[in-house]
From TrEMBL:
<keyword id="KW-1133">Transmembrane helix</keyword>
<keyword id="KW-0472">Membrane</keyword>
<dbReference type="InterPro" id="IPR031876">
    <property type="entry name" value="DUF4760"/>
</dbReference>
<feature type="transmembrane region" description="Helical">
    <location>
        <begin position="110"/>
        <end position="129"/>
    </location>
</feature>
<protein>
    <recommendedName>
        <fullName>DUF4760 domain-containing protein</fullName>
    </recommendedName>
</protein>
<feature type="region of interest" description="Disordered">
    <location>
        <begin position="307"/>
        <end position="330"/>
    </location>
</feature>
<dbReference type="Pfam" id="PF15956">
    <property type="entry name" value="DUF4760"/>
</dbReference>
<feature type="transmembrane region" description="Helical">
    <location>
        <begin position="20"/>
        <end position="40"/>
    </location>
</feature>
<feature type="transmembrane region" description="Helical">
    <location>
        <begin position="85"/>
        <end position="104"/>
    </location>
</feature>
<keyword id="KW-0812">Transmembrane</keyword>
<feature type="compositionally biased region" description="Basic residues">
    <location>
        <begin position="312"/>
        <end position="330"/>
    </location>
</feature>
<feature type="transmembrane region" description="Helical">
    <location>
        <begin position="52"/>
        <end position="73"/>
    </location>
</feature>
Length: 330
């Protein structure tokens, strides 16, 4: 009998919110306990202290940590664009509060220097928040213009129509055509003939892939607003990655950097990339219906013309069309 294989536990990362909540609770509890102990007059003289009382310093550090984390949570919620450097400024606030306690408690002659330090820090933080919010507003308006221009762009809409005409939701480009597009000089493609309709659909799909590649690079280098683009295009991204699955794979065989932005966006927005997961085993990918079908691909490879618009219909539909034309003539 074969013993069942035990799956290894996954290493899950602890959410950032849980870490912040832990430290908030830690500093709050530490500060409260130390303050209560100080008010009760607990004798700490048994411990020899070199320059200052560690007990009161612990109270100051706990309160400083609580204030710093509270500022971090409030500012990150009100100004979400400042989250990148906000931990640094929170650490500076923690350091200033502890330093301020030490100066006021033990070295009062440096109060003027302390006030200058606090003032400069507050001015710097205010300027930094203003710069970050201004840059974010400009980035958001620029992204909105791109989205609106996409909606009214005739070039984008034409390519989207040509791509969606044959490769609707749940359909993908045949592997042979993707190989032909990337390397048309192969011997097996000498007799291959594509109709204009199929050429337009493939070129339209490549155009859409390149457009998403442009968006991905803009997001990666923080030139475009990711939140707005995700709300607008996250649903379509999965479909376009499936539609151009073999085009992306064949392009990356030539250069691994080709269409890397599509994979980057898929992993960032959906948590996984279909191309990355099934690159080594494309047959396992659930791509849907292949267009053209296998039989149609064989005909195309033999040089036969395949028409997708005027496919043969049933007798009933042909009879209905005849009746409509007769009625229109009458």
């Amino acid at each position: 009998m074969s013993t069942p294989s035990l799956s290894q536990p996954e290493n899950k990362k602890i959410p950032k919110k849980n870490i912040l909540t832990f430290f908030l609770g830690f500093f709050s509890a530490s500060g409260i306990l130390l303050i209560i102990a100080r008010m009760l007059g607990v004798d700490f003289n048994a411990i020899e202290l070199s320059s200052f009382q560690l007990f009161e310093l612990g109270i100051a550090a706990s309160i400083s940590g609580l204030i710093s984390l509270s500022i971090y949570l409030v500012v990150s919620k009100v100004y979400p664009d400042t989250r990148k450097l906000l931990p640094l400024f929170s650490s500076i606030i923690f350091f200033i509060i502890v330093t301020g306690y030490l100066v006021l408690r033990y070295i009062p002659k440096y109060q003027i220097a302390l006030s200058i330090l606090v003032t400069a820090t507050l001015i710097g933080m205010g300027w930094w928040i203003q710069v970050m919010t201004t840059a974010a507003s400009s980035r958001r308006s620029h992204t909105l213009n791109i989205v609106l221009n996409t909606r009214i762009s005739t070039v984008y809409q034409d390519n989207l129509k040509k791509s969606s005409h044959l490769f609707k939701n749940g359909r993908h480009i045949a592997k042979e055509l993707a190989e032909w597009r990337d390397n048309p000089d192969k011997p097996e493609f000498k007799k291959l003939k594509l109709g204009q309709e199929l050429k337009d659909a493939i070129n339209g799909t490549v155009f859409i892939l390149n457009y998403f590649e442009f968006l991905a690079q803009g997001i990666k280098y923080d030139d475009l607003d990711e939140v707005l683009l995700k709300e607008c295009f996250s649903g379509f991204l999965e479909n376009i990655e499936r539609r151009g699955f073999f085009i992306i794979i064949e392009a990356q065989k030539t250069n691994p950097k080709n269409f890397e932005g599509i994979i980057y966006l898929s992993k960032r927005w959906r948590g996984e990339s279909l191309v990355e997961n099934c690159k080594d085993a494309p047959e396992k990918a659930q791509l849907g219906i292949q267009v053209p079908s296998k039989e149609e691909v064989k005909k195309i490879m033999r040089g036969e013309k395949v028409c997708f618009k005027n496919k043969p219909t049933s007798k009933k539909t042909r009879a209905k069309k005849k009746d409509k034309t007769k009625n229109e003539k009458k």
